[in-house]
Write a structure and sequence with these properties.
It is built from six helices and ten strands. The chain has 277 residues and is α+β, with helices and mostly antiparallel strands. The chain binds copper (II) ion (CU).
Length: 277
């Protein structure tokens, strides 16, 4: 009786804790309310199954408790029960997976008016790149990485020269403007994660991953690395600042282009100056 009661209390306590708990997601700051929606569906389904299983256990503990003269019956097969459990489990799992597939499709279908922003991870810091006036990001290759060119932009690519490179600063974004977030890593696996954006994606050395989002709330948001990437992993922090248009433009004007940072004003040409006699 005491154990059955304890099980019922566990079920009731879990539901009460869920609704009364002060710990909940940090308020959302992007368009990805759908991500929260899929999580809530999963909570409801797993929560209902959890309560049903625990209450069923309490019922069994009480109903089939030891009594003198009672004998257990061995029943290894039960067609009807197996059929019923298989269908119910399949429906539950499908209901949890299907919304995720729909949201994933939206997560990687970038709207036409999105501007590109590149985020580069390395052990253990974040760098950023915005397209310059031409609206295009130049190409890059890890072989070009050096002190003047921390992101490895192709020195002779005209599209790269006006790219804005932010190495060791914050990334600023304009509120309400969709961005395509392009992710690169210079060394090992990292994962770009801003909890308020409800968006995260692995950064894989040698490839470019992406998703898109629209910031919907101004403020400063922490960037976390969500992929264990070495001893400095917990300190791999950055900041995204979401600002109104005027503040964003003021910040943008203060940023340096790749050409300014690397002292490469024009395409590099091989030249030969004869030594004076
Ligand atoms: Cu990392």
């Amino acid at each position: 009786m005491a154990i059955a009661l304890a099980l019922v209390l566990v079920a009731i306590g879990s539901v009460v804790f869920h609704f009364a708990s002060p710990w909940w997601w940090t308020p959302i700051a992007s368009n990805w309310g759908y991500i929260d929606g899929t999580l809530i569906i999963t909570f409801w389904i797993t929560g209902a199954v959890f309560v049903a299983v625990v209450l069923f256990m309490a019922y069994c503990v009480l109903r089939f408790r030891h009594r003198t003269g009672n004998q257990a019956l061995y029943e290894p097969e039960n067609k009807r029960l197996e059929w019923w459990l298989t269908v119910a489990t399949a429906l539950g799992v499908a209901a949890m997976l299907a919304p995720g597939l729909v949201v994933w499709q939206q997560f990687i279908t970038v709207p036409e008016d999105a501007t590109e922003v590149e985020i580069v991870g390395r052990q253990w810091s974040w760098s950023f790149r915005l397209p310059g006036k031409d609206g295009k990001l130049g190409t890059s290759d890890i072989r070009y990485v050096d002190a003047d060119n921390p992101l490895g932009l192709t020195p002779d690519d005209p599209n790269a020269r006006d790219d804005i490179v932010i190495d060791g600063g914050d990334l600023h974004l304009q509120i309400g403007k969709p961005v395509k977030v392009l992710l690169r890593s210079l060394d090992v696996l990292h994962d770009f994660y801003v909890p308020e954006f409800r968006g995260k994606m692995d950064m894989v050395p040698g490839s470019v991953t992406y998703f898109w989002m629209t910031p919907t709330r101004t403020g400063n948001f922490d960037i976390l690395c969500a992929e264990l990437c070495g001893v400095g992993h917990p300190q791999m922090r950055g900041q995204v600042v979401v600002a109104e248009e005027a503040a964003y433009q003021a910040w943008l004007e203060k940023q340096k282009t790749f050409a300014e940072l690397s002292g490469r004003p024009g395409p590099q040409k091989a030249s030969y100056t004869p030594a004076s006699p």
